[in-house]
Amino acid sequence: MVVDADRVFQALADATRRDILARVLHEGHSVSSLARLYPMSFAAVQKHVAVLEAAGLVSKERRGREQVVHGEAAVLRQAGDVLTSLWQHRVRGIEDVLKGDGNASS
Prior knowledge:
Blueprint lengths: L4 H8 L2 H12 L2 E2 H5 L6 H13 L3 E6 L2 E6 L1 H27 L7
Antiparallel strand pairs: 1-3, 2-3
Helix pairs in contact: 1-4, 2-4
């Protein structure tokens, strides 16, 4: 599975979506139960879940009349790996500058 980092980080840029993801990573929640937790409409929560789903951070499972949202930890780990790689590259560049190597890349 390849992570669309732009979509993942855009989805994670919103505090409500981060909170929804944190909740569903531990235990699945129906969209309606999630909607009761936030001071916004059911439709607004549905849209947040849709953004998370498009980024691959959550999946939905139909149980009767409800859709249960589950977090996708593997996708979140891959996004973390992308950040780790970026920071390691930056740190190496800083180390090169501090060593006086004129070939440091940004």
